[in-house]
Amino acid sequence: MQLDNKEVSLSPEVITLGEPMAVLIAQETGELKNVSHFLRGIAGAELNVAISLTRLGHSCSYITRLGKDPFGEYIYDYIRSTKIDHKYIYFDKEYNTGLYLKSKPLNGEDPIIYYYRKNSAASHLATKDIEKVDFKGYKILHITGITAALSKNCKDALYLAIEKARKNNLLISFDTNIRRALWKNEKEMKKVLNKIAFESDIVLPGIGEGRELTGKNTPEQIADYYIQNGSKAVIIKIGKSGAYYKTKEESGQVDGFKIENIVDTVGAGDGFASGLLSGILDGKSIKDSVKTGNAVASIIIQHKGDNAPLPTKEELDQYIFENYSKKILVSKNYNR
Fold it and tell me: Which residues form the Carbohydrate kinase PfkB domain (predicted)?
């Protein structure tokens, strides 16, 4: 899948929307209630993707609401220090910025996450905010299922963003990114996320998410389900085995990178999405774009933090060269 780059645009290449949060990362192992020292950071799936894409040399716009509070101002100052276009970031004096705590895991285990995000400023993002956005000139809209789960007005804002993206011929990338605690029930979750997936050009579920949302078992079956319902490409993340991809024209599995020491898995999916989209923006084939996604994800899980270890383009190219020996490894065994 390649973008048509014939027209040169002065607008950023990618636009995304979602909830940014401050994160307090435990610096000691054990239960969070017993931790005394935390490291402050910034998180949020869509913001992670925007940060990564800018480090890889691409331009992004980010739409959100922040509380007029210390965490909101901290996040805004950080975004301003990057190359992310922040003209669609709005401050909300009534509601606070979301926050979460993250434990320090042992032996590559997933950390414990505890959210303080109910009724956050970002959950009040609305269609009126999207109406202000000019989608003309962008190439990609990247969205996740998290935004749709935050509130009804966020879901409506997401639907409007999809509609405006379609009218302006943007490629729509959708990471299902299930957060069960944010949904009222599983039936609504499946209905909403699949509706968004059917409207998207690229769908990016994890293998477990794909099975839950489609009722199918294998990567091929999951991909077929979405392609038969309107999606153009489906890339299914299958952990250390890499990712399976399928379009109407081709399919395959790109092996993951061998990792000796997994430090923190949070943010890996966002890293994968940014690497994939970077590859597409650079005109790479779908196979090479998936390989780039695998590379960024593997870098993320070897470090602490959702976005601190994100590489520059030069660092990423060197990492792929050293670890992949410039060879695309495609397995014939997809039924995992």
Answer: 13-312
Beta carbons within 10 angstroms of residue 23's beta carbon: 23
110 annotated active-site: no
Distance CA 266, CA 279 (A): 22
Check if the beta carbon of residue 96 is closer than 8 Å to that of residue 67: yes
Residue of 85, 129, 270, 306 with catalytic role? 270
Burial state string for 280-308 with b = 16 or more CB within 10 A and e = fewer than 16: bbbebebbbbbbbbbbbbbbbbeebbbbe
pTM: 0.91
pLDDT value of residue 146: 97
Domains of the chain (ranges, CATH numbers): 17-331 (3.40.1190.20)
List beta partners, residue 174.
143, 203
Q: Is the pLDDT of residue 334 over 70?
A: no
The string of DSSP codes covering 37-69 is -EEEEEE-HHHHHHHHHHHTT--EEEEEEEESS
Axis-axis angle for helices 268-281, 45-55 (nearest 10): 40
What number of other Cβ atoms are within 10 A of residue 4's Cβ?
8
